Amino acid sequence: MRWLFNLSFRHKIPLWTSFLISFSIFVVGAALMTRAYEDMKRAVVISADNLGHTLANTVAPTLLHDDVWRAFEIVRSPIRGESARTPVQVDAVVVLGRESKVFVSSHPDTLPMLSEAAALGADWRRLSERLSTPGDEKWPLVLEPEDSSYLYLVLPITDKDAHLGHLVLRYAKSVFHPWFIDTLWQGLGLGLLVLAVLIPINWYWGSRMATPLVDLAQRMGMMLEKVPEPLPPDMYPYDDELGQLFQAYDRMVLALRDKAALESEVVRSERLAAIGQLTAGIAHEINNPLAGLITVIDTLKLHRDLDPRVLRSLELIDRGLMQIRDTVAALLVQTKVQARPLNQHDLEDIHTLIQPEIGKRRIRLDWSATMPVELPAPASLVRQILINLLLNAVQAARDGGHVSLWLGRKDDSESCLSIVVRNDGALLGAEQLAHLFEPFASTRAGGHGLGLWVTYQIVTQLDGHIDARNVGGQVEFVVNLPLGDTPCSTASA
Question: Is the pLDDT of residue 254 over 80?
Fold first, then answer.
């Protein structure tokens, strides 16, 4: 039986309600059937009382004169066809004398004259015992013996207050059956009609109430794994107790989301603080030898007899060292870094620096960079952004795959520089996209997850915007940077 209580509310509520409706209709129907039976019996008693008084008054003189034949004609008259005046046909009429002997009966073959009433059967024996017991009887006396198929109505026969005997009318209970069956069919039809109307309404409202409860239980079961979604507002748009429960659940979900966002921000802040302390220490150790290296390069460049190839290499090293210095400064100082403008030499340096990695992976590189001689953007920081994004794309692309770079003014705007880097490696999932620019959130095995975080920090320092997405089966990174002090639309294209 326990399994019935373990059913889902979407089944349990309609089933229990349907059972209660059916049970209620059955109880009401049984009560109506009982009432109908009593009403039928009362109608028979009233009809029998009228007939009995008529017969008692008519048969009394025959008892006084001992006129058996006349009495027989009188008691036989209702049996021969006068039933039109009564709702049902009387089964037998018997006149009992004062000694409870049969004076005359309508059926002398089964109820012979001068027989003792007690000898005619169990019903007559109970009737005889009742009549022989003194008491204040209310006439007519109605007897319905147990396990009997007959109903008896008894009236006294008197003449001028002299008691002469009793008139007994016997009715077969089977006369009730047509009335009872007709009433039963009417009640059954009405009950089925009520069920046909109420049960579909019950199933609709039961499902209407249970479906949100089932959905609520499923969502609450997921709370240990993640913060669930709020319930749809049109699922149960009422303000009763269930509606208040669902509204409380939605408020709880919103509070949990705010709590999760706050916890995530706290964790992120703690990470950034730890990384900031670590970066500050590393920057201090980097800046000391870096200053010496920059001094050495500057000293070497003062020699006029240097080979052009050596001088070109020194300039490449010098720009690389300046990039390291500016990148470290951008990570440590929450202000814009003042640096030289971006030029074609910087793009050539980047193209040269990534060639070994491209050749090792047999990557096809599509390079499209449209720009004037110089752009008012900090060269070192833009170089770092390009190197990080290109190396990340090369490492993410499949062997023999494809990487592309597009650099130019966004929508031909004079105030916005746009960088688009694509690769044909594995697409990023929703969880990866959500944490892509967080420290230590690497998308590949063996990665430390700091390259994209450093890129994000630099773009933020420059008041720009960086975004990542899956486009046409490829992974695309878009960076929009303002040129100089002129603001631009930093939303990704």
Answer: yes
